[in-house]
């Protein structure tokens, strides 16, 4: 959780990265679905969808990265990190990762309490 500066704008983001054998895109999607469920997206009946990233978008392996949308608004990205990037850090197992915009999540998923 922290502040990210993009195009001269500060944005609060939450991110994760996990290295595990047998992980990959499916594990990243499962982590994203669990996060959004636990925040209450399911209880609010919000449509959550995943859309494939174009090649070169983010650090993700082509075909194993996705933008995440809630109610047609982009809220984050998830995926399996490209092994070429992992090799630069001498990591030998698949890495899945994700990043979400905290402000958008807070606005789109009302507090259930």
Describe the structure.
It is a single chain. The model has no long low-confidence stretch (mean pLDDT 89). 25% of the residues lie in helices and 42% in strands. The protein has a six-stranded antiparallel β-sheet. It has one domain (15-108): Bira Bifunctional Protein, Domain 2 (BirA Bifunctional Protein, domain 2). The two termini are 23 Å apart. It contains three helices and six strands. 23% of the residues are buried. It is α+β, with helices and mostly antiparallel strands. Strand 3 and strand 4 form a beta hairpin. It has helices at residues 25-39, 83-88, 102-108; strands at residues 2-6, 9-19, 48-52, 60-70, 73-81, 95-101.
**How are the strands of the biggest sheet laid out side by side?**
1-2-6-5-4-3
**How far do the termini sit from each other?**
23 Å
Helix content: 10-25%
State which percent range the strand residues make up. 35-45%
Class computed from helices, strands and strand pairing = alpha+beta
- Tally the beta strands: 6
As for the CATH topology, it is BirA Bifunctional Protein, domain 2
Q: Which CATH class?
A: Alpha Beta
List unreliable stretches of 5+ residues.
none
- Cα radius of gyration in angstroms: 14 Å
* Total domain modules: 1
- Along the chain, the helix and strand elements come as EEHEEEHEH
The appropriate CATH architecture is 2-Layer Sandwich
Shape: globular
The CATH homologous superfamily is termed: Bira Bifunctional Protein, Domain 2
Number of helices: 3
Q: Give the overall pLDDT as a whole number.
A: 89
The largest pleated sheet is described as: 6 strands, antiparallel
């Amino acid at each position: 959780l922290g502040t990210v500066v993009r195009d001269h704008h500060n944005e609060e983001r939450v991110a994760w990265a996990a290295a595990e054998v047998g992980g990959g895109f499916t594990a990243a999607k499962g982590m994203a679905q669990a996060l959004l469920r636990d925040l209450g997206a399911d209880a609010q009946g919000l449509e959550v969808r995943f859309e494939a990233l174009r090649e070169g978008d983010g650090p993700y392996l082509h075909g194993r990265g996705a933008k995440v949308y809630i109610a047609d608004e982009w809220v984050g990205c998830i995926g399996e990190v490209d092994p070429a990037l992992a090799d630069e850090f001498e990591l030998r197992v698949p890495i899945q990762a994700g990043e979400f915009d905290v402000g958008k999540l807070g606005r789109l998923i009302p507090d259930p309490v």
